[in-house]
């Protein structure tokens, strides 16, 4: 281990497995993050960096991570090269962390060949297994593991309402989420608090489903997708980030939480609202096959949908900055 004591003017660091610690003061928290360069992870890193937290970015691609998080802007970062599905010296970087946030996983918005389905499953199941293994090996264990999951756990329905206690669905994504969560659940045997976030459709303008749906509206060809009657359980990216950050320190948070806004909408209402915000009509129905061309088999989460409510987050008193769709879209598209 190499340690630098005191507050030093330093840029981001690169580590290939050995542990590097920087002590920024008693208020600093050390957090390891996988999936840090993704849609949610990148915004999470921005917030934690602004709060002067010490961040370990576990990344498969050092060059990409350094490009996204330049050292002059992100002075509190350490980069660790890791292989998500394999044990390795990278696991040593977990020791001494206050929290581990595991957001890694292969994108689902692609055509699901047999190989792709295996990658989707293994990137989550085995990736989480290796994170828990790293925690088990750590001489100084983190206080909490915050692990990703998805509302795909519940399957799809136009009529059911899903809460955290609702049963498992019976499709491919439900099976993936079940395996994913089962691996994370093992960390409780190590005395580590576990928070699992079943995330809805994350709204942001630089990625995810919304970014791909904006195109038709921009050329005045937007409209409801499929029947328009399917539920759209969404969450503004900033609310999701705030929920993750709260989970790092709030010891009352434990178990499964639905990371969705409290007011899901039908697809027809979503598209009407999107059209209003963009000052574009919402009249031309988008056939399912057109969305599948954009999102592959992952379009199922938009085409079929489900109504998911964040009961536990609300009971905890979490304040959604964007609980209603129109203000959320207005902030994103402004």
Q: Helix amount, in percent?
A: 25-40%
Mean pLDDT: 87
What is the N-to-C order of secondary-structure elements (H for helix, E for strand)? EEEEHEHEEHEEHEEHEEHEEHHHEHH
Q: What structural class do helix, strand and pairing data support?
A: alpha/beta
Question: How would you write the strand order of the largest sheet?
Answer: 2-6-5-4-7-8-10-14
Unreliable residue stretches = 1-26
Q: Describe the biggest sheet?
A: 8 strands, parallel
How far apart the termini lie comes to 46 Å
Radius of gyration, Cα only, in angstroms?
Answer: 20 Å
Count of strand segments: 16
Counted by DSSP, the helix tally is 11
Estimated share of beta-strand residues: 15-25%
Spatial shape: globular
Question: Which secondary structure elements does this structure contain, and how are they paired or packed?
Answer:
Blueprint: E1 2-4, E2 13-15, E3 20-22, E4 30-34, H1 39-50, E5 54-59, H2 62-68, E6 77-81, E7 99-102, H3 114-137, E8 144-150, E9 161-162, H4 172-185, E10 193-199, E11 201-203, H5 208-218, E12 231-232, E13 234-236, H6 237-249, E14 255-259, E15 265-266, H7 267-278, H8 288-295, H9 300-303, E16 307-308, H10 311-316, H11 325-333
Parallel strand pairs: 1-3, 2-6, 4-5, 4-7, 5-6, 7-8, 8-10, 9-16, 10-14, 11-13
Antiparallel strand pairs: 12-15
